[in-house]
Amino acid sequence: TPPERIRNFCIIAHIDHGKSTLADRMLQVTGVVDQRQMRDQYLDRMDIERERGITIKSQAVRMPWATAEHTHILNMIDTPGHVDFTYEVSRSLAACEGAVLLVDAAQGIEAQTLANLYLAMENDLTIIPVLNKIDLPSAQPEKYAEEIAGLIGCDPEDVMRVSGKTGVGVPELLDRIVELIPPPVGDPDAPARAMIFDSVYDTYRGVVTYVRVVDGALSPRERIAMMSTKATHELLEIGVISPEPVPSKGLGVGEVGYLITGVKDVRQSKVGDTVTGERRQASEALGGYKDPKPMVFSGLYPIDGSDYPDLREALDKLKLNDAALVYEPETSAALGFGFRVGFLGMLHLEIVRERLEREFGLDLISTLPNVEYEVTLDDGKVVEVTNPSEFPSGRIDSITEPVVRATILAPSEFIGAIMELCQTRRGTLRGMDYLSPERVEMRYTLPLAEIVFDFFDALKSRTRGYASLDYEPDGTQVADLVKVDILLQGDTVDAFSAIVHKDKAYAYGVQMAGKLKELIPRQQFEVPVQAAIGARVIARETIRAIRKDVLAKCYGGDISRKRKLLEKQKEGKKRMKMVGSVEVPQEAFIAALSQD
Ligand code: GTP
Asked: 136-140, 283-287, 322-326: which has the highest mean pLDDT?
């Protein structure tokens, strides 16, 4: 297809604002999927179509669309929807010339959408603003058209109104995409350059790589090279998705499609990297490539120690599909053998944990998440700390922590509550804008460490669920941080050590000591629970001694009941961990580490 007839676009939307439903309608209206095959969320469900041997999420679909003059090819490129994946979003946007900004006409724009809109504007994408769900009785298209027009600087009249559900306005939207979004430009005679905007591991085919060709062309069977690593691979298959994968004779300037090379690990096909031909290599890679950098770290331990090899295997498998996941073995006196795992953010952590539990049937404990600190010692030595147990004991000159630029959108009545929350989290207000008289956008600089710890929940509860949040990394700052240890009878319990701001050390110590006092059963002797910074104790609780006699409860001579109790106690013993001479049931560690 000649580039003038191609339009590459994505849909920027908040979860539940109707992206999948609109995509379904587009597939239908363009005839890519006929009435008979149509089912809800066609693209999302494609992974069920395994017999084709390829798993397709909705990364990119090609749709023909005929206007009065010509038939055009529309490539709809999917963007991931969450804060942790800003880099991936930025690469999907870089593969497009335009974006449909889709906003629920009954809800208005959310922080996430706003952040992605700004990203699209920075990338010079043509924005087509659209209000969805206008069939809803609660829709307020006038009000929200006004809001959107204010944000992108257009006329409220230019904000389109559609319903993904009924299909109203969808053909007009496709016409508008052809009319307003510029066709791709590139040099067809130059050496090939294609940008990878997604890569997905498939059990049957290995890694499926999604690319947008910028210059030149790629053809089947040729050898390609990845510009970041110089690694070369044979192109086993190249094609387009419409809506099933269809092998093609190649991809030219502006085209979007998939490549299969037989590599088994998404790390060999990195998002943002440039693909070129091996024989005629481009001299310069496309801009914007970055290695994924983990921001949040947590120890993951199997509750049953014998699951450790299974945990390793599960992580090795997940890694094939997740270039951002990093981990290394770690041991803890309290929790046994496990891994220290790095994540892009809290959602990434939750996703990985959930997949390990659901797909691999593992029961896990995770330690309190922490960020990466840079500790400079008095002698000038610099130590990177991703685990509180690595915190150096020498004299410390300074410590830096990562900070983020956060955007919060909320009804204006909650401004006070939000300011108060951000203040307690060491935030600095950077600016505030009214989107409308009732809605405000607040911009903060906040330490990442303060966000990873239940910030979102606190924000939601203070704003009755109305606030939305987005954030992106914004460098580091020097901060007054200390490491707080928790000691049982003088022995440090490594899993509870935390790096916290000096002003919060006392609160953390008191809270943890209190929790453990409640959770650890009495022993034969008195056990002090202390919180300490270095050698200085900042909080103390005492677990009083008890002579524990399980049989004492059994009056009378019910021998089977006695046996049962002894049996039970033995089982419980197996789950006990020794910290020095103190026996702690593993349950107590799990309960103390849970954030609620
Ligand atoms: P995620 O896949 O979770 O990101 O959501 P999404 O943005 O893709 O939204 P989805 O298409 O799944 O729609 C969310 C909900 O809104 C579903 O219950 C849809 O049925 C409903 N919905 C989507 N479009 C419309 C519409 O135009 N009108 C009405 N009334 N409901 C709609």
From this structure: 136-140
Q: What is the CA radius of gyration of the chain?
A: 28
**What whole-number distance in Å separates Cα of residue 327 and Cα of residue 300?**
10
Q: Which residue has the higher pLDDT, 516 or 46?
A: 516
Question: What number does the ligand 1 atom closest to the CA of 102 have?
Answer: 7
- Are residues 197 and 123 in contact, defined by beta-carbon separation less than 8 angstroms? no
Statement: residue 552 has pLDDT above 80: no
In short, whether 81's Cβ falls inside 6 Å of ligand 1 is yes
pTM of the shown model: 0.78
Q: For the residues 97-111, what does the mean pLDDT come to?
A: 93
161 Cβ below 6 A of ligand 1: no
**Secondary structure (DSSP) of 139-181:** --HHHHHHHHHHHHT--GGGSEE--TTT-TTHHHHHHHHHHHS
CB–CB of 275/260 below 8 Å?
A: no
CA distance 497 to 481: 13
Tell me what pLDDT residue 321 has. 78
Which H, E and C letters describe 365-384, residue by residue?
Answer: EECCCECCEEEEECCCCEEE
Q: Band the pLDDT of 344: cuts 50, 70, 90.
A: confident
Q: Can you read off the two tokens belonging to residue 203?
A: 């059990």
Q: Residue written as tokens 């990195």?
A: 270
Q: 136 CB under 6 A from ligand 1?
A: yes
Residue owning the nearest CA to atom 2 of ligand 1: 20
> Do the annotations mark residue 123 as ligand-binding?
no
Name, in order, each residue with C-beta under 8 angstroms of 358's C-beta and a sequence gap of 6 or more. Answer: none
The rounded Å distance from CA 132 to ligand 1 centre is 9
Is 50 exceeded by the pLDDT of residue 402?
yes
Residue with the smallest CA separation from ligand 1 atom 14 is: 16
Q: How far apart are the first and last CA of the chain?
A: 56
Mean pLDDT of the 218-241 span: 92
| pLDDT of res. 164 | 94
What is the average per-residue pLDDT within 150-168? Answer: 94
The alpha carbon of 97 and the centre of ligand 1 are apart by a number of angstroms equal to: 25
408 touches 430 (CB < 8 A)? no
Ligand 1 atom closest to 44 (CA): 2
Nearest residue to 548 via CA among 588, 579, 585, 496: 585
Residue among 20, 21, 107 whose CB has most ligand 1 atoms within 8 A, to mutate: 21
